[in-house]
Design a protein that fits this description.
Layout lengths: L10 E5 L40 E6 L3 E6 L4 E6 L14 E6 L3 E6 L4 E5 L15 E6 L4 E5 L4 E4 L5 H4 L8 E4 L3 E5 L5 E5 L17 E5 L2 E5 L5 E5 L13 E4 L6 E6 L4 E5 L14 E5 L4 E6 L4 E5 L14
Antiparallel strand pairs: 1-4, 2-3, 3-4, 5-6, 6-7, 8-9, 9-10, 11-12, 12-13, 14-15, 15-16, 17-18, 18-19, 20-21, 21-22
Length: 324
């Protein structure tokens, strides 16, 4: 199984214009005015009260860098910058969703197109669908798939096996991606898996319907059933296919061997194998999104603030945006 670990060359936080720390030495917070009462995007989705989400609305984590999207549409990225994922991110656009692979990242623009940046050796950035009506993007280590508002799924680059693997007629309501595979959930709660596999993360996909959520990691796939229980299949190492018991409402997708899910009381739980602390979310935080990472895991709380925990060797914890 492919594993990529990179030496630390630089750690920066960049967002909406300035790629450097301020004079105080604190990480640059990209947001400017973060009062989103008048600027929240319509497609950020309501919270449980029916109001638009405020603060940070989406987060993606890789081994050594992370990106997040704010409700006002601005993007922040931080961490290791060897492939320019941090410094070359599109900070001047208005974004609704973000995903990260290995040395590459993609985001969905408010207008519906997808932009990718970072390592473009195989055409991930140059082949990204810059126009469309996309609402979600996910990434394997080097490839990407996006879902539009009709549920149609497009994958790229063309040299990848993923574009030809998308099942004909697939209409998805949610996507998730692992190291080399993709999961799609449809309106009936059926799960479709496609791509490569190492240890049954594709072929072991259940054929039943009624699933309510999906997530994936390196060599592993997971889903939440109608009763809120987690099931995982694929790679058995580090207990990845033995998720915690309980009633869960969502499960995150991350690049690495750590998986995280949110319980019905909005507390987070993580499992698998990663750096010290990467499987230990704060117990006093109520989450609305939580994703696992092999070095650090990150989540967004119900107020829209970002919380990262685990190793800070790449600055994933200390350089995360500190404001909502």
């Amino acid at each position: 199984m492919l594993r990529r670990e990179l030496m630390v060359l630089s750690v920066v936080l960049v967002g909406c214009g300035d790629p450097k720390p301020d004079d105080s030495g604190e990480p640059y917070d990209s947001g400017g005015d973060t009062d989103t009462s008048d600027t929240a995007l319509e497609d950020t989705g309501p919270d449980d009260t029916g109001d638009p989400l405020e603060g940070w609305i989406d987060i993606a984590v890789a081994t050594d860098h992370a990106c997040a999207v704010h409700a006002d549409g601005h993007l922040a990225c931080w961490g290791h910058d060897a492939t320019m994922v941090v410094s070359n991110a599109p900070y001047t656009g208005t974004w609704t969703d973000v995903a990260i692979g290995s040395g590459r990242a993609c985001a969905v623009a408010a207008e519906g197109g997808v932009t990718c940046w970072g390592d473009d050796e195989f055409g991930l950035a140059s082949e990204a669908p810059g126009t469309g009506s996309y609402v979600e993007v996910v990434m394997t280590y080097g490839d990407a798939c996006a879902r539009d508002d009709d549920g149609q799924v497009a994958c790229w680059p063309s040299v990848s096996q993923l574009p030809g693997a998308v099942p004909p007629g697939l209409v998805a309501t949610q996507l998730a991606a692992g190291e080399v595979h993709v999961l799609a959930l449809d309106a009936s709660g059926a799960i479709t898996a496609f791509g490569m596999e190492y240890q049954g993360e594709v072929s072991g996909t259940p054929t039943s319907t009624g699933w309510t959520g999906i997530g994936a990691g390196d060599g592993v796939s997971c889903a939440i059933d109608a009763g809120g229980e987690l099931s995982c299949w694929g790679r058995t190492e580090m207990g990845l296919t033995n998720p915690p018991a309980g009633v869960f409402t969502s499960i995150g997708t991350g690049v690495g061997s750590v998986l995280c899910a949110i319980r019905e009381d909005q507390r987070g739980l993580c499992w698998g194998g990663g750096a010290e602390g990467a499987t230990t979310p704060p117990t006093d935080v109520l989450f609305r999104q939580l994703v696992g990472g092999s070095q650090a895991s990150c989540g967004i709380d119900t107020d829209g603030a970002i919380h990262c925990f685990g190793s800070d060797s790449y600055g994933l914890v200390s350089a995360a945006p500190s404001s909502t």
